[in-house]
Amino acid sequence: MKLYYSPGACSMAPHIVATETGTKLDLVKVDIPNKKTEDGGDFYKINPKGYVPALQLDNGEVLTEVGVICQYLADQKPEAGLVAKAGTMERYHQMEALNFAATEVHKQIGALFNPKMTPEMKEVQMGTIEKRLNPFEKSLEGKQFVMGDKFSAADAYLFTVLNWTNPLKIDVGAKWPNIKAYMGRVASRPKVQETMKAEGLIK
Known about the structure:
Layout: E1 2-5, H1 12-21, E2 26-31, E3 36-37, E4 54-56, E5 62-64, H2 66-76, H3 89-110, H4 119-139, H5 153-162, H6 172-175, H7 177-187, H8 190-198
Helix pairs in contact: 1-2, 1-5, 1-8, 2-5, 3-4, 3-5, 5-7
């Protein structure tokens, strides 16, 4: 399988899931602004949407969207325990967390990277982010991870997009100490460290 990615982008979430489950992936770096793969290929031919991640299966079929790829990879290695069995309420709660990561955290924090965002727009956006992170902060009380004491695919996604607060210079610890501690727990996992090193984010 090939994972089309960009270092530190949302594609890091399925990369973490693959590393945690021991799934071998061929990594293909993508130049997002120019829509080119590292060998000069047209990325639109892989994913017509033009963004990462894209997972190309061995049969040539391509999956896109972070939450879907994370679930797919976790389902290939159920013994790793990163996703609950289909049809269980635990699975639906994990899907709930993945959707929250996608629509309420990823999109809200990611919007701040827009170079055309004015200070006034940023203030409004930060207000929205605060409304999303406040209940998440409360939900983490007494828990190691989103689902409790067990790391899941949803944690890989949430950590990835929450990690963008670092380059954006958002002081998470000032308002959301539980989230800050949660990010630290995920970051310290050996497989997460391995993933970040593979993407050139840490040494």
